[in-house]
């Protein structure tokens, strides 16, 4: 009955982006309001989706729409929502909306807001990105999923490559080549499934629990799909695109990259890889768990030695995603539940952390911790407090959202699914637990360096910008093809540039508005994890039907 | 009434949230960086003090009402009434659910009273102690949050909910130790405290998993009911893992090193968190799950050895410290080890009774030390002396505290320590512990009694007697304890002292003390021997430190047997080296492979490009060669 809602969720940002192409001049004057309104309508639709969702039947696909798409190939335009995808859809719409609010609130006078740096193109890119992200979580057809999965890459490539930092070109090229390579492998896996079963319908495939595919085929397909998803997640050792992309991406790019894009990889495990290929999952799960715990410890150790705040948060994502993968690897309801919870929590917390890192970078012109000089709590007490809050949430303190997912993932590893070797998973649990201590270590050390101590005058970054890691050794030409200065007519619309006092001020209006919802949600899910767990438990039990 | 435990937890929590957000209303516009506005600051501090104190007082009333029914039933062994409380909801996890049960039984209701009353005393005291501190609002809010978390631990009926409170306590401890974060040393102490306890807590969480899975429930009542059916291996594993968390939180060997450094926090915090309540939480958890521990004798042996080493070592370290707060910190480790020893010896009631009296008298001692430090402007005892005339109230109350600490009758510590010693004496004969462990425990406990007398006498004499040291006081750095000019401390600081002195003196008579006369005589004689030795040394030369009695042991004792250096060499430095190695590996190997693939693709294409050099002759030769090859192939293979 409400089948139009998922379509509307995709159509609104798509139409919004198209209008920008069709009527650029008419919209130029209201470009700030425009972005907020379009993403706001999308967010409102996602809230409506959550409000009308039948929580009594969270395991069932709801709001389904199933139309022929490319009949010759048997591809269908099949969308739907269940308890696993609903939180992610709402999270995506929320984070995109908050990004627009951050960019546009109060006329955008801050340097990281929507200013003279091609505002129309930025709005367009973000809206297209939103279409891809939401579509990935709604798609119920393997190829449709793949299409949305790929759509996301292009706007993100431009986001990093156009609005990024100094090494943006190398970072964006690395990002797109690496993730495209992963996607190709994933496509092969999807085609194996299609060739073996003759259908691309995710619902039908997961209901049959891998019937019609031999064990070896399942393993092959799981590995292929798993590699593709693992690049996106990212899983150690396929992670090296992430620190560069995060460090160079603009604030909103980092937020969406960490908050949503990484979730697409882990969502793929829950939606496709594990339910469709249960036997393959059982065979590969010990390896997946091994890579996951290596990632946890490796990410934490790498964070301990980082100098750059944004890079540190990027590496912390590798550790957190390790917990998510460990949860999936246990193949138990509690582990998968934990993984899905950690997924959403990581989106909220790391999104907030990247907002904060961006805000600090605006005020300090760089994010090099040793040369920042500490004392953030003295110079900007509120910013320092929110940074403390977000870090503590991220290190997994009970009572905040970060804890429950990781705790349940470890609990799952304590009692993995029947066919899995228990001793091995107990080892994983212990290593994961030690990784949690290391996670706490780098966050409190970071807080100690950045927020504590007496403030001293900030110095320019001591070291030259990070080691040269360009893909192409020739000196890149970073000059913009079109001059960045906007036409005079646009410049008149922009307010005066921000004053020095405004740049060094504590939390400002647009930041407060964008961050408050995240803080509230982190507290809410932390204090009452049942909100999410009761939503994900029924579908997880159904999807793992063949294993439990 | 069944909602009272929940209310007692929620009230301080709400106070924390309100205090953090609304103490400074109206907020200054963030753009303008003004010089600190003194009047506004004082207004905010006053408001924050009310926001913090009133809910804590209300929680204290609730805790007292909850404790009214069971009274001291836990200690007397009377049949306690049913626990008061209810389950407020269940959280599905996909496996064993988590139930939000909050209830007060005989044990937790008594502890609830201790927690809320000490918290109330500390809140009132802090209002005076930190009156000039610009960050008092956040400080008092964190204390409220801590109170809430500790009450959650005490009243929780579910192990995982208990764990939530357990960790939030650790967070509050971290935030409050680092309250004066301008000083990097304080910041480091906070980091150390958080990480050392967190390391133990991971084991604690795994212990909860083991118990919960074995009992198929995380509810404490269900777990305890299932203990008889569990295999010994399960029980030993679970209790050993739990013990690691207990050792971290209760500062027991080998995870005790954070507590002396934690004295970097404001003194009221040391009184509340690092003496009376949080560090006692480990003892409480063992008492709470005591049937599981008694069913695992190897764990009790380990606990006994840990306690024996900890109590004597910490007492010796206390004897050599010059910083008054560090003396008290090592004393806390030593006294907590007494409680752990009592538990190991098989008497949970004796241990918890010592926990209660210790909570009262150690909080009192810390608050008195705070007054002294406030007055002198330094933590070091070399700069104190002769203070009994200037601080008469503090002198009397602190004397009561020291009497209770050393176990001089009729102070509370005398009775509770006697109970613990009696339990250890029993353990020698009942065979609950292995003989060696029981003997070690009892021997160390008796030796510690003497050393306790010695260090308490030393601190008492060097602080309040002798000639006053006239020390020129520099204007204190912002962020250190402020010097008050008045003769005695303000009333908000003195009232809590007097109120805490009452239980420190008289709590021993509660709960029908049963006295073992022989042990009592021995312990009093030992105490007097230790104190007498120090007194004799001090009489000989009042300016010299009686710690010289230790002779060549003095430096190792002062450094707490170099354990910090050992940990730095064994843990901290290797991890830092490993971190550096990981970063290098990540760049050179993992990412190097990625970049290498890019570079080799370019090289490969460079080689292919050689063929596309625009030279027509080369192209034609290539075509001819190809045709030739095909022709030859066709001829040969057909």
Physical arrangement of strands within the biggest beta sheet of chain A:
1-2
Number of strands of chain A: 2
SS content category of chain A: mainly alpha
Strand residue content of chain A: under 5%
> Mean of residue pLDDT of chain B?
88
Low-confidence stretches of chain A: 464-476, 482-494
Strands of the widest sheet of chain B, in order across it, are 1-2
Helix content of chain B: over 70%
Tally the helices of chain B: 24
Q: Could you walk me through the main structural features you see in this protein, from its secondary elements to its overall organization?
A:
The complex is a heterodimer of chains A (548) and B (638). Chain A starts with a helix and ends in a 5-residue tail after the last helix. In chain A, strands 1-2 form a two-stranded antiparallel sheet. The longest helix of chain A is centred in the middle third of the chain and has 31 residues, at 333-363. Chain A has one domain (4-456, 505-543). Chain A is globular and about 65 Å long. Chain A is an all-alpha fold and 548 residues long. Chain A has 24 helices and two strands. Chain B has 638 residues and is an all-alpha fold. Among the domains of chain B are: 315-327 and 334-558, no CATH class; 568-637, no CATH class. Chain B contains 24 helices and two strands. Chain B has helices at residues 4-22, 38-68, 73-76, 106-129, 136-155, 159-177, 184-215, 220-226, 232-249, 258-261, 267-276, 278-288, 290-294, 297-320, 324-344, 348-376, 392-406, 412-430, 435-464, 491-506, 517-540, 554-558, 563-611, 616-637, and strands spanning 84-91, 98-104. Chain B has a two-stranded antiparallel ribbon. Chain B is elongated. Chain B starts with a helix and ends with a helix. At the A-B interface, helix 8, helix 13, helix 15, helix 18 and helix 19 of A face strand 1, helix 6, helix 7 and helix 23 of B.
